[in-house]
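Subgroup meeting minutes
Present: P.N., E.W., G.H.
Scribe: E.W.

1. P.N. recapped why we're keeping a running log of single-chain structure predictions: easier to compare across weeks, and new members can see raw inputs and outputs side by side.
2. G.H. added today's entry (459 aa).
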Amino acid sequence: MLLGGDIVFGKQKNGMKFLRTRLFLDNLKSFIKGWLLKFTNMKIGNQESISEWHLISEYKIDINWREELGEVNHSRIHNMSLGADTINGTLLKPGKVFSLRKVLGEATIQKGYAQGPVFRNGKTTYTTGGGLCLDSSVLFNAVLYGNLKILEKYNHSTDLWGEDRFVDLGRDATYVYGRKAEEMCKKMGVDEFIYIDAKMNPETYLQAIDNVIAQEVDGVLTCIPDQQLSQVTVNKLKEAGIPVIAADDALQDEDGNKLAPWVGISAYNIGAANGEWMAKYAIDNGLDKDEEAGLLLLTMDTVSSCVPRTEGEYDKFTENISDFPEDKIYRADYNGETDKGFAAASSVITANPQIKKWMVMAANDEGAVGGVRALEQAGLDKDSCVIGLGAYLAKGEFKKEYSAMKAATYFSAQAVGGDSAKFLIDHIKNGTEIPMEHAVDAIIVTKDNYKEVMGKYAE
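Output recorded in log:
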């Protein structure tokens, strides 16, 4: 199977966007070339001419604007496009198995994925890479109509869209990934690691808990699909004498009190790291007392997971510079995209000509880069400072001879799985007490250290 070309969302006459996938078999039907899966309007480039292939399957999904998602609609389309771009060029030889999980890997901020919608606990929430299930669904349906053998596929745990769903009931396909914990376990000498994907299904999840108890495992790492199952999970494992750590979503009671150790990412702490760095920069460069200096917070108030980032930025900055004038702290909201961040920042900069030296913090790297472009347009970038959040775009700015992007907070979502596994294994092997809460560290990277800190993600 050759997965080729770019994913391009076409437009119908009524303006609605769509995603269409076509499945081809070479005209000779020799199965030597395998299968070609392409997206509408793909660019063939230097690949073989599409005329050499015979169309056997085609499937289209209409990409409707979901009013309840607001501006996050843009993020899910961005994630779909990035996911398909990653798939492009994958060659599956005859008789081999294609795994979407192996091709896409984990959807991380470092790879450029944004916060998108996912179904969890019977409701819509947001996580990095949300929206990739539409890539998965359109591929599944194309393969289904192409009469290829399907080895594994899972539906979503809920049907929140009802009659407005993108595909027919039962023909959707989820996309989930999780393997960092396994890597850490093997590194620390664990003989056997059992990975069970509950597909965000509460019933499947509880069956999995019962199964691992029956197998008398030494410990459990879990990402719970429904936090209402927290108490029963903890009770079952406690009765069996099996330690448990919650990764990402906490095992907690109705009041939010944690019932078991938790490892995850603290959006507030990440923002606080930005705020602390910016405050130090301001003090070191005399901006804290400069009448021409101002602070701009680019916010994403429509995305709940991003709100604590801005809160952390503001709290830590004002904690370190308590006398910084409130009337010189500006806010502008955007939707998470670079061009919207640019527009939001430009509006504030233009409206406040008295500010010549800007300090800019954003809710993600896209907003930060938008702030950089706005400062460049205004001719204020040489005396201003921007700090990114995520570093996946900031690294591009660091490679330039000069950029107002002076730093960025870097954090690894993969560290959640790795750290949780390390805590559990240390406990099992050495009796080391597991901390009740552990938030993955956010590291400030700059032009001087980003390659060392980010490793392969700096490329």
